[in-house]
């Protein structure tokens, strides 16, 4: 049973930074595609950023230049450095993972989510 565990969420003032981490356990194989989604109250879950082992990376326009995704391929871990945070970044952030070497249309594995709250 693959489990993704997120950490690093919390409360921060606008303009501040947070770093989210996600690590996979219970998988015999590397998760080749990993990423971050978020869901704000009353809104649909949306992609923040993801990346594949082949180097393909997607970053939402709303966070470009402020958020940076990185990964540790050997450990099936993914990170999200969030700088210049805005109140509209407030959401539950979910880690996603998949065995596919290309970014999948739908990820197979999801974490439980970590709350990020940005105060104005």
Summarize the structure.
This protein has strands at 3-7, 10-13, 18-25, 33-39, 46-52, 57-59, 67-72, 77-82, 91-98, 109-110, 114-119. By secondary structure, the chain is mostly beta strands.
Largest sheet geometry: 7 strands, mixed
Which range does the strand content fall in?
A: over 45%
Number of helices: 0
Spans with pLDDT under 50 lasting ≥5 residues? none
Structural class: mainly beta
What global shape is seen? globular
Distance between the termini: 40 Å
Helix proportion range: under 10%
Mean model confidence by pLDDT: 95
Query: What order do the helices and strands follow?
Result: EEEEEEEEEEE
Count of β-strands: 11
Describe how the helices and strands are arranged.
Blueprint: E1 3-7, E2 10-13, E3 18-25, E4 33-39, E5 46-52, E6 57-59, E7 67-72, E8 77-82, E9 91-98, E10 109-110, E11 114-119
Parallel strand pairs: 2-11
Antiparallel strand pairs: 1-3, 3-8, 4-5, 4-9, 5-6, 7-8, 9-10, 9-11
Fold and architecture overview:
The protein has strands at residues 3-7, 10-13, 18-25, 33-39, 46-52, 57-59, 67-72, 77-82, 91-98, 109-110, 114-119. It has 120 residues and is mainly beta. A hairpin with a 4-residue loop joins strand 7 (67-72) and strand 8 (77-82). The protein is globular. The mean pLDDT is 95.
Q: Which features would summarize this protein structure in a list?
A:
single chain; 120 residues; mainly beta; seven-stranded mixed beta sheet; four-stranded antiparallel beta sheet; 11 strands; globular
């Amino acid at each position: 049973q693959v489990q993704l565990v997120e950490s690093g969420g919390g409360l921060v003032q606008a303009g501040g930074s947070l770093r989210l981490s996600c690590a996979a356990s219970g998988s015999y194989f590397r998760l080749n595609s990993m990423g971050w989604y978020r869901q704000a109250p009353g809104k649909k879950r949306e992609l923040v950023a993801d990346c594949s082992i082949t180097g393909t990376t997607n970053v939402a326009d709303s966070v470009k230049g402020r958020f940076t995704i990185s990964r540790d391929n050997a450990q099936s871990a993914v990170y999200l450095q969030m700088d210049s945070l805005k109140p509209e970044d407030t959401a539950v952030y979910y880690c996603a993972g998949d065995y596919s070497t290309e970014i999948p249309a739908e990820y197979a594995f999801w974490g439980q989510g970590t709350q990020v709250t940005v105060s104005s």
